[in-house]
Amino acid sequence: MKMKVKYVAFDYGNTLLLDPFVDVVSGISDKIMDILKRNGYNVEEKEVVSKWIESNENTNGPHYSHFFQERPIVRDFLGNIGVKPRDYAFLIPKILSEYRQELKKFILEIDHTEVRETLEYLKDINKKLFVWSNERKYSLETVLKWIDIDPYFDKIISSEEIKSEKPDIEFFKKCIEMSGVEKEGTVYVGDDPEKDIIPASKVGLKTILYKTEEHKPTSWRRYNTQAKPNAVIKKISDIKKIIF
Q: Across the chain, where does the E strand assignment appear?
């Protein structure tokens, strides 16, 4: 389907950047084991990875950044591997620091050419671009700088900033107002049928569902919904075939 719009708004997680969490945790598991061992806890690598993944999936809160990680997620992880609460205050910042250093290293090593070329194409045909995402303001802006795509966007809006989260339609209403766009001329690109496509459609936006082989159904992303996107893409560069 061809689509003529003035404005293109993107989700961030699993749209502009595929989920790096498992790769990052696996990459620092030996360092985490060493930190724990030096503080009296012997934990196997397999348990470090599996328990952190479990805590990441089961711990949530307003505007939590699961890519950048949050203190409550790490605290839950430490509790699940038997760390005593008296050691949380010391260990949490050390572990978060290791994670975020590895996250930056991982992101800088990824080839983001396809995303950059797609954004460049859209700017070349005079589209205004936005990021509207559930996320912490500082983590969203930081990672977009690491990817080196922040200059392409006319405005970057986090759920934390507007105190509303997808799938609440108020999130989209506030983003539309803050961005100064006409909803009839705007398309929203996201990977989640329930959080992205359905509420964006309800407020009158066109929608594109980004669904790759890496986008598996999870407890928080379901495909057996009533979502009816205007188009479905398998890779981000497919946008160039749709928007004109």
A: 7-10, 128-133, 155-158, 186-190, 206-210, 231-233
CA nearest neighbour of 188 among 5, 2, 1, 20: 5
* Cα–Cα distance measured from residue 239 to residue 227, given in angstroms and rounded to the nearest whole number: 19
Helices 21-38 and 88-109: crossing angle in degrees, nearest 10, is: 140
Q: Which residues of the chain have pLDDT under 70?
A: 214-224
Q: What is the pLDDT of residue 218?
A: 63
The reported pLDDT for the residue numbered 216 is: 59
What does the DSSP 8-state code read for residue 196?
I
Strands 186-190 and 206-210: parallel
Please tell me the pTM assigned to this model. Answer: 0.94
Q: Is 2 exposed, middle or buried (0-12, 13-18, 19+ CB in 10 A)?
A: exposed
